[in-house]
Design a protein that fits this description.
The protein has 211 residues and is of the alpha+beta class. It has helices at residues 8-15, 32-35, 56-70, 74-85, 91-100, 103-109, 116-124, 158-167, 202-209, and strands spanning 128-130, 133-134, 147-150, 176-179, 184-187.
Length: 211
């Protein structure tokens, strides 16, 4: 299964924003964006001021940002877009909904993992159940009414417990519910655009792929 294995902080620096790929570290002064907010590479620091992107460049950067945020590679992202394009509704909103409905993202949103990469690992290792059945496919599309929970023997995993504790103060999205005591959650409804608060301009992505 293809996935990015390089340094996560390089991706944040390339996009110029925090993608929260390293969990709680991203909230501390150890985050690379705090003291090295310039593009990675030999000449990154000498070109500290980022160029104002327009047109194709702006569209491409937006697509790359979303791909990196959700941990999706190009071919898979294109498949998501084709599905959104042929579905009834607004293409950009459906695209974001498909990304939000990934099992690894739901695991992260419920606070069972401190980042999407960690959530992906938990799913791959069989720590996550959907409606009581083990699902080890990070891209699995959850549906309204699905219950997501942690495997019984994994409920003492310190990484999972620490993540759940850290999410206590910020809560979960309104389209999800969380039973913190039993380490389970439910998809109350499919996410609407106003409930997806990540800084994304999906119209730029639609424009890019519509050329």
């Amino acid at each position: 299964m293809a996935r990015y294995t390089g340094a996560a902080c390089r991706l944040c620096r390339r996009e110029g924003i925090k993608l929260f790929l390293k969990g709680q570290r991203c909230l501390t002064d150890k985050c690379a964006i705090e003291d090295r907010n310039f593009v990675p590479g030999e000449h990154g620091k000498s070109h500290f001021r980022r160029r104002q992107l327009l047109g194709f460049g702006q569209q491409l950067r937006e697509k790359q940002k979303v791909k990196r945020m959700y941990g999706v590679l190009e071919n898979q992202f294109r498949r998501y877009f084709r599905t959104a394009e042929t579905s009834k509704g607004v293409t950009g909103e459906i695209l974001l909904q498909l990304l939000e409905r990934r099992l690894d993202n739901i695991t992260f949103r419920l606070g069972f993992a401190s980042s999407r990469p960690q959530a992906r690992q938990f799913v791959l290792h069989g720590h996550v159940l959907v409606n009581g059945k083990k699902v080890n496919i990070p891209s699995y599309q959850v549906k309204q009414g699905d219950e997501i929970s942690i495997l019984q023997k994994s409920r003492k995993n310190p990484l999972i417990l620490n993540s759940v504790e850290s999410v206590a103060g910020k809560g979960v999205p309104e389209w999800l519910s969380l039973d913190r005591e039993n380490l389970s959650g439910q998809v109350l409804e499919l996410p609407q655009r106003e409930a997806i608060t990540v800084p994304i301009e999906e119209s730029l992505i639609v424009e890019l792929y519509s050329k």
